[in-house]
Amino acid sequence: MPTTILTDIAETKITQAAGSGSQVAITHVALGDGNGASYNGDFDQTALRRERVRVPIERRHIVSPSAWRVKAEFGADTVAFDVREAGFFDADGDLIALCTFPAAEVRRTGAIVYLIDHVLNFSRVAEGLIIVDAPDDDLFDHVVTNLETQAIFAAEQFDQRLAIRALQETI
Length: 171
Fold this sequence. Notes:
Blueprint: E1 3-6, H1 8-20, E2 24-32, E3 51-56, E4 59-64, E5 67-74, E6 82-83, E7 85-90, E8 95-100, E9 107-108, E10 114-121, E11 130-132, H2 138-170
Parallel strand pairs: 2-11
Antiparallel strand pairs: 1-8, 2-3, 2-7, 4-5, 5-10, 6-9, 7-8
């Protein structure tokens, strides 16, 4: 399973943001090949071991007050390489979060579109100090809202069915 960590740079920026009322805004995601080997990320990393490509985050969805789902796309024309690391960078170009992939979960770019659909969890950080600065994923939000509405409706129908059954048993 991939491991995602907040870097020391992130912690420094979070501390500064907490005192100033500002936020750390993640804007880009980069992929790298880890210099040809899978590894466990270090908190003191300031860059990917070998970054190969970087793009802006295309869409975001707030999963919870401290978790963001981010989506980015690397086109089929991206140079082919085995993805062993992904970095999430702020507007200053600083590495905020690092995700490393074990050998069994390495995937290859090139020839097909490579999609990042990743949840960044900042549960150990005060709410609102880290954000993802990208357009909202309106379609995803609509689907989630629609599914919640359907679930509530189904639960209500179930409750009504039980009430009707109980009335029928008393007749």
